[in-house]
UniProtKB/TrEMBL annotation:
Belongs to the bacterial ring-hydroxylating dioxygenase ferredoxin component family. It comes from Paraburkholderia panacisoli. Keywords: 2Fe-2S, Iron, Iron-sulfur, Metal-binding. Transmembrane segments: none annotated. The lineage of its organism: Bacteria, Pseudomonadati, Pseudomonadota, Betaproteobacteria, Burkholderiales. InterPro entries: Rieske_2Fe-2S, Rieske_2Fe-2S_sf. This is Non-heme iron oxygenase ferredoxin subunit. One of its GO terms (molecular function) is metal ion binding. Residues 11-106 form the Rieske domain. Gene3D superfamilies: Rieske [2Fe-2S] iron-sulphur domain. Its cofactor is [2Fe-2S] cluster. SUPFAM superfamilies: ISP domain.
Length: 114
């Protein structure tokens, strides 16, 4: 299911039960890849690829509020995408997430109709 609001398209990424607490899964949609996280504060999402090297963050480890890249162990703050440890130094793009009826919905940019 997809719904468009305020220049966002809300797409179902997974069921809430598909992600354990302190974990991450990969979600691919419309040629883009995302990482969807579940931490104590709730569900979050970001671009799936590390900003340092081309490693998918869903293959990394969630530690507290941070995702550790599987390639060089750089860490990002999950809610904000802020780099937390070298070698990462470029912010990770984050996306809005909401939970409805046991599903995790990801707000991705709606395509321009022109």
């Amino acid at each position: 299911m997809t719904v468009e609001t305020n220049n966002l398209k809300w797409v179902v990424a997974c069921a809430t039960g598909d992600i354990d607490e302190e974990d991450v899964i990969r979600f691919d949609h419309a040629g883009a890849s995302y990482a969807v996280y579940r931490i104590g504060e709730g569900f979050f999402a970001s671009d799936g690829w590390c900003t340092h090297e081309r490693a998918h963050l869903a293959d990394g480890f969630v530690v507290n509020r941070e995702i550790e890249c599987p390639l060089h162990q750089g860490r990002f703050d999950i809610p904000t995408g802020k780099p937390k440890s070298p070698p990462v130094c470029v912010h990770l793009k984050t996306y809005p997430v909401r939970v409805e009826n046991g599903e995790v919905l990801l707000g991705v940019p709606a395509k321009d109709p022109s």
